[in-house]
Amino acid sequence: MIYFVTGNGGKFVEARAIIDDLLQRNIGYTEVQADSLEEVAAFGIAEVMRKLASPAIIEDAGLFIDHLRGFPGVYSAYVFDTIGNRGTLKLMADVENRRAVFRSVVCYGEPGMEPRFFRGEMEGRIGYAPRGEGGFGYDPIFEVEERTLGEMSLEEKNRISHRARSMMALKEWLDRGRP
């Protein structure tokens, strides 16, 4: 059993579809302002390890938009909570280069060992309007091959997403016996 420390039910559902022995724990941790997803995750897992005496993971993800020089990046959750998809689309009004990348870092920790990081990435573009009812967060405006993540089923999204890739890397490591 591994605790996935998150208050985001959508993230948990996606992760649980890949790793079935996850249990969600919403114990909270400080999301430090840093320059990289790895720094945020490392700080968070250290705090989680002080609170829990068992294996746990946290996941940090960000949307990196080329035209905005990587913004919102590590501040994606804050930006989404502040301006949402509508505000993000306003920032992209009349912009031709709509290329963007979703990045995910999963950090695994357990008592007595150094944390391990697993990364995933997905390239796409920012659409012109929200489409689809699925997923959460930026999913309705992030397009991959003419469809938004919001238009995809969980199974379709988990075949290509940044989070699925980082979770699959963790699963492969766990299945090998954690070398």
Topology overview:
Layout (H helix, E strand, L loop, with lengths): L1 E4 L3 H8 L5 E4 L11 H15 L4 E10 L6 E2 L2 H16 L7 E11 L6 E11 L15 E3 L2 E2 L5 H7 L1 H14 L4
Parallel strand pairs: 1-2, 1-3
Antiparallel strand pairs: 3-4, 3-5, 5-6, 6-7, 7-8
Helix pairs in contact: 4-5
Task: Describe, in plain words, how this protein is organized in 3D.
Helix 4 (154-160) crosses helix 5 (162-175). The protein contains 5 helices and 8 strands, in the order βαβαββαββββαα. It is globular and about 50 Å long. The longest helix is centred in the middle third of the chain and has 16 residues, at 76-91. It has 179 residues and is of the alpha+beta class. The chain starts with a strand and ends with a helix. A hairpin with a 2-residue loop joins strand 7 (142-144) and strand 8. It has a single domain, classed as Alpha-Beta Complex (Maf protein), CATH 3.90.950.10. Strands 1, 2, 3, 4, 5, 6, 7 and 8 form an 8-stranded mixed sheet that branches.
Summary, kept brief:
With 179 residues, this protein is of the alpha+beta class. It has five helices and eight strands.
The general outline is: globular
Which strand-content bin applies to the residues? 25-35%
Please summarize the sheet with the most strands: 8 strands, mixed
Percent range for helical residues? 25-40%
